[in-house]
Design goal:
The chain has 233 residues and is an alpha+beta fold. Helix content is 24%, strand content 16%. It has a 4-stranded mixed β-sheet with strand order 7-10-8-9. Strands 1-2-11 form a 3-stranded antiparallel β-sheet. Strands 3-5 form a two-stranded antiparallel ribbon. Strand 1 and strand 2 form a beta hairpin. Helix 2 packs across helix 3. It is globular, with a radius of gyration of 17 Å.
Length: 233
């Protein structure tokens, strides 16, 4: 695995070496601390309010990094804006020839129900397009296709860039795409089988509230649904 994985992903992978009772949380069950980079203060995280949005920030267009599909639904908590900006900046560095990330709905200005979604009420959920072909995204929305047409490297780097922030609670994706990305990380030496299982648990081993980060859900063949944690103040 590459040396520049940062503390967010590093802690996640370290958990597989610990006995079950000693493992740090990896999902909504994470209540307390994730260690920051050495020499920096501890970043305290918690589950976020998910029904309304207070103090939201609008994600502004940065076409060199990402495209916002619906500005009126691009309001999120500051942690969400940080996650998207940092991940987009890392992708621009790692895959400079790839298309800018396509970002779908986050929340409305004050949160609350958003048409077409069961969540996206509190500025903590975002839909992000997947890479297809050779780093390609559909510029006007989300493209769909079979797993064999995915750009597996680019999608893994996108997931890893978000995990590196330490702010990801959960990522939802169709199981066929999960399987393809997971297999690619193992085949290409990005992750060991044990590390891959810690992030992409097999359905037979998955316990929603105790294991992994990337989980299957229906109607997510063409995009990632990402939910974040909130910084404890």
């Amino acid at each position: 695995m590459r040396k520049f994985l940062t503390w967010g992903l590093g802690l996640l992978l370290a958990a597989v070496a610990l006995p079950a009772h000693a493992q740090p949380g990896m999902g909504p069950w994470l209540d307390e601390a994730l260690p920051a980079v050495e020499g920096e203060p501890l970043q305290m995280l918690k589950a976020c309010p998910d029904q309304s949005l207070s103090g939201g920030v609008q994600l502004k267009e940065r076409p060199e990094l990402y495209r916002v599909m619906s500005p009126d639904a691009a309001w999120g908590r500051p942690e969400m804006i940080e996650l998207l900006t940092r991940a987009a900046e890392e992708m621009a560095w790692l895959k400079p020839d790839a298309d800018p990330i396509v970002i779908g709905d986050i929340s409305r200005r004050w949160g609350g129900p958003l048409a077409g979604h069961k969540s996206h009420r509190g500025g903590i959920d975002v839909d992000v397009g997947l890479y297809w072909g050779n780093g390609e995204m559909l510029k006007t929305g989300f493209k769909s296709g079979p797993p064999q047409e995915l750009d597996l490297e680019a999608n893994w780097l996108l997931i890893r860039s978000m995990l590196d922030t330490g702010l990801v609670e959960r990522i939802l994706l169709d199981q066929r795409n999960i399987d393809a990305i997971k297999a690619w990380t193992i085949k290409n030496g990005e992750l060991t089988k044990e590390e891959a299982e810690a992030i992409f648990p097999a359905p037979s081993n998955r316990r929603w509230n105790m294991t992994g980060v990337v989980h299957h859900t229906v109607n997510h063949r063409e995009h990632l649904h990402v939910r974040i944690f909130c910084a404890r103040t």
